[in-house]
Amino acid sequence: FLVLLPTGAAACVELKRFEEAITWCDKGLAINKNNRILLSLRLQSVSEVGDKSMEEKDPISHEPGSASSGDFKKVIDLYNQGEEAIEYHNLYLKKAQEVGDKHGEGNAYGSLGNAYHRLGDFKKAIEYHNLHLKIAKEVGDKHGEGVAYGNLGNPYHSLGDFKKAIEYPNLHLKIAKEVGDKNGEGNAYGSLGNAYFSLGDFKKAIEYHNLILKIDKEVGDKHGEGGAYCNLGNAYDRLGDFKKAIEYHNLHLKIAKEVGDKHGEGGAYGNLGNAYHSLGDFKKAIEYHNLHLKIAKEVGDKHGEGNAYGSLGNAYLSLGAFKKAIEYHNLHLKIAKEVGDKHGEGATYGNLGNTYRRLGDFKKAKEYHDLHLKIAKEVGDKHGEGNAFGNLGNAFFSLGAFKKAIEYHNLHLIIAKEVGDKHGEGNAYGSLGNAYFSLGDFKKAIGYHNLHLKIAKEVGDKHGEGGAYGNLGNAYDRLGDFKKAIEYQNLHLKIAKEVGDKHGEGNAYGNLGNAYRRLGDFKKAIEYHNLDLKIAKEVGDKSSEAIAYCSLGLVFELQGRLPKAVEHYQASINLFNSLRVLLISKDEWKVNFRNQHQVAYTGLWRVLLEQGNVDEALFVAEKGRAQALTDLMESSFCGGTSHHKGEDEDCAVLKNVPPNTVFQAVDKANVYLWVGSEGKQVQLRQSKLKDFVSENSGSSLSFESFMLGVYTQLGVLSNVRCENGSLDALREGRSKVDKKTKEAKPEPHIQQDGCLSTLYDIVMKPVADLIEGDELLIIPDGPLWIAPYAALKDGNSKYLCESFTIRVAPSLASLRLIADCPDDYHKSSDALLVGDPWVSEVTNSEGEKVLEQLEYAKKEVEMIGNILNITPITGRQATKREVLKRLSSVSLVHFAAHGCMVTGEIALTPDPHRISTVPTAEDYILTIGDVLNAQLRAKLVVLSCCHSGRGEIKAEGVIGIARAFMGAGARSIVASLWAIDDEANLEFMKYFYQQLAGGKPASESLNLAMKSLRESDKFCDIKHWAPYLLIGDDVTLDFIAKDRENLNMKSHE
């Protein structure tokens, strides 16, 4: 019975029935006068009733260590959190039902509803609150009826049903006024304020919170007064009035300290952190969130601790400290799962998704946003569902999939309209405007940004209003209306200053600098970019600081102030490199981060060339090339220790350039060509695309469109008689490269006859006089990675491969790493030949079989096996487990299987010992991570998968299968640029391996195999013999020749 008494007392306190709570406490204290829970509850109840005579007679109020309101909060929390609370409330319910206490039964239902609400089970909470409501009506308990209505509003609010969240507190308010319940009236105002806040109507939210503040002051409820200040602070924060928000949060903090409310104090610190975050002062935000975290841990507030971790994650994300952001969000996620907070769990998935999006890990970002969406749908959280759709839209936007982004933002918009979320509706319009802006539809973008602006003004969202002005300015800038652009950016700036939004102020300065630069007013452009830089430094935003330096570099370059340009571009690169270090070993993060900031590297080497610093410009271009791949190779070859220890080492890379090396660097429609050989001075030549091709109307000249023209004229974009060895069928859509191929603008008209002659004239003719001997090494850049160099035709109609053996490499540093690798690092014997793995069991998400068996792939490896006298593994034997077991012990690896040209994944036979009936990706997909862990030691990897030499073109280089194996430790790769006719590929591989088996180097074997096809009647067309390329080092597989010699000797004995 004593166990039930504190439960009943706590329930009465929660329902504001303080006199009844005192009765419950007195009954319990008569049995055990030292029960601390009952003593604390009684003290609080006496305090709330305000009966001074009772308080004076109350011995516990004068005892040392009597409970403060902070201690009382702990007591209440004991009964309000987790499964333990539900157990207590169920015991109380059972007892009330046994004795026929309808009043107590109703209270128990209400307490159970609140407990389930805190656990995130909103539907069950509604069920119990309805039971409470039913009993209250039956027994004519108007007060209880009002409380039940008020409680019903809370789970509907959490579910995102804001209409119902307003309807129920209004019913509560009506009853509270009827019965003269000032506390209830205040609670109803608070709930209505919270509902309007969630709807994005912050002005109305402020109106209601001011009403509750008035009541709390009247009745002397300091705790409630503090809560009202808290809610007012949050509303002003969302309105963009951050200074006022801080003012209210400080008032809340003051009261919390006065009354000893540690929970409230912690919450105030957290809200102050959020306000300073909104102001762009991330360091101060972190300081306050740490104070919140400290208190939450002290008082055992797991929910507050989780929120503090989440807020710290967001602050570190804004500072560009991605690793730390992920750490904190994972701590929040752990707590949310521990306490069963589904809503918090979903929100944390959303935050993790946003962090991974900023890192460029879009695959992981999508995974997390999908988890958020799943939870939101499970618990019926429409608001969370809308946010998840919006975040998915942002992820696809960052991927460059703007049409898909629009699809998701429209889903967000539909939900926002359904639930009446004006703030969400405005944000959706803004996101749609950004997507149409990126598609080049600036007029449509302006239309959506104006809708965002209209809503922001309606609800008084100053922050949103400023952002809309900034976006409108950017759109008018792209339309060439610079005056209008400046007008809108100034409106954004004005609002940012008014509300103290330092981050927005910096953005506005940066955009104004860009607009004045395009107008040719460089003096004003420099002035604004410096203001942007000043703010970025003040708030510690390294990423914005780097962008500001880069923008200043560009203006100084245009002014002809080249030393200043170099200084600022270099400062930008230094900052980007310091941020890059934080990305640790995540390859994909580094690749995307480098891609986002390519302009700084390009700007620096371009200005150095203008100054005549040819060697230094090459050094900078090389430093920015294949950075992430070099990191991967260092981890493979050097065990994770950086090979380059300083500038002297880096300079050595340039001094020890292999003979006849042509280093390319593309800047828009220009290509710069450095030619170097060991011990010789580096020479520079340049080509301009406009000298060789003419622009089509409506399309700008670029190497991307030019290379599309080359591929079109070669006929390699059309279907060929080739088994589909791509993994695209397992993915949502085709790769980005293929999408670009389909959606690209018409290729430019080529003035000279023959696209291959034109390409030769652009990239080889300018340096032809500098090339000596018969070996050629090319370090391609950007779109020139996919050039079929072997087929380029010189002025005498001679193919380049007839004059040279050709190989390509991602960077000079990668070649140096290979050259410096210990002699015994790569294996010198044995081969692994993998062909036509059994993939008939593999299905897509709909359960449909999507991968075909590759008959020619099986023939291919069996033929190679005969040449090399090695048994291949095919069909059911070609399991992932078997391949990984052999990878580290062979000198040659040959794959003839389904592959993904972007991720570097290869499909193998699913593990027969797997747990699931339907194979998961882990059961059969060979990832680059798997290859790295297997410690690849092959001298040569041959990738006979469709277009294995292609992939996604980024600043890093081509991201695909070939790069993946080079990063994993392969010395040399043979790959193809496009899909090849099956019979032609079979013939090529036969000739190639026959030469390789004869002891010839890979480059010469490749050349001779291409020559054999070129001179044949059936496969003489360029599309059959030209796509093959050798990447990395030139290797000879001595073991093959020795094995054949031994075999021949045995046959003669």
TrEMBL record:
TM region(s), chain numbering: none
Ranges of the TPR repeats in the UniProt entry: 106-139, 186-219, 226-259, 266-299, 506-539, 546-579
Database matches in Gene3D superfamilies: Tetratricopeptide repeat domain
Keyword Iron part of the UniProt annotation: no
Alphabetical list of Pfam families matching this protein: CHAT (PF12770), TPR_12 (PF13424), TPR_7 (PF13176)
Keyword presence, Metal-binding: no
InterPro entries in the cross-refs: CHAT_dom (IPR024983), TPR-like_helical_dom_sf (IPR011990), TPR_rpt (IPR019734)
Domain CHAT per the UniProt entry, residue ranges: 755-1033
Protein name according to UniProt: CHAT domain-containing protein
PANTHER family (alphabetical): RAPSYN-RELATED (PTHR10098), TETRATRICOPEPTIDE REPEAT PROTEIN 28 (PTHR10098:SF108)
Alphabetic keyword roster: TPR repeat
